[in-house]
Specification:
Number of helices: 13
Structural class: mainly alpha
Number of domains: 2
Order of helices and strands: HHHHHHHEEEHHHHHH
Strand content: under 5%
Shape: globular
CATH class of the largest domain: Mainly Alpha
Distance between the termini: 65 Å
CATH superfamily of the largest domain: Intergrase catalytic core
Radius of gyration: 22 Å
Number of strands: 3
Strand order of the largest sheet: 1-2-3
Helix content: 55-70%
Largest sheet: 3 strands, antiparallel
Amino acid sequence: MEIDSIIEQFTSFLLMEKGLSKNSVIAYKLDIIGFFNHTNADPLNIRKNNILSYFTALKELNIASTTLARKFSSLKSFFNYLIYDGRLKESPMEIMESPKVWSKLPEILSFNEIKELFAQCDIEDIWQLRDRLAMELLYSSGLRVSELIDLKNQNVLFDIEFLRVVGKGNKERLVPTSSDALKLLKKFNELAINIRKVNNLILNRRGLNISRQYIWQMLRKYAKKAGIAKKVYPHIFRHSFATHLIENGADLRSVQEMLGHADISTTQIYTHISREYIKEVYKKCHPRG
């Protein structure tokens, strides 16, 4: 059976029936292709030993446990789809356990480091103003980079200082944003009025949608200018947003709602970061620390 055809049907199922985002579907698709490139076997004749051989090979490459767990989940979903579609009677992964994930605490930026990044932008220049606006939105609202670049002007509720954000699985949520972000946005919109060709908040120099790659490159550039040694990338602002909220007394449910996490256990990692922060404060400030 033609594996390419089955994979295309599976990805269409994830998009149309499951409502997964395009980025998630691409990740699933690449995981499935990687597996069948390794096994080179008929998808309807996969056995447990094919799967064990694949994951053994990945472990020998020192692939991160989180990546192994994601690939396992992708394969499990694929074989479950074949059962749902009537092509298989049972999954070869039926009694297999997902690889254990060792949680690694995400790195964050301090508030002073974030202020240093912001300070690198001359907001009298339209494109540096645009960059500062992008950083402000990432930090003040905890947005994913995909949510930032997809954000439209009609998603901004100026009167109540909220953003209407479409997240993973096309789930919509309302997230507060800062008054500084809204001021920067108003100024950018005034300067970009003759450039704008689309209604996205963050534009490139041609007035079109900005790319994810640009956001990554832009953050690296300003981090270098600010002398920040940490790796600065879009998601570090989201980690910092959540951690700073919890350190300053925000409850976990509110942070979960703002981040758009389906499961509160995903949000709980930030309580671990907060405990590390508290431990550092204790060591620094207590006489017996």
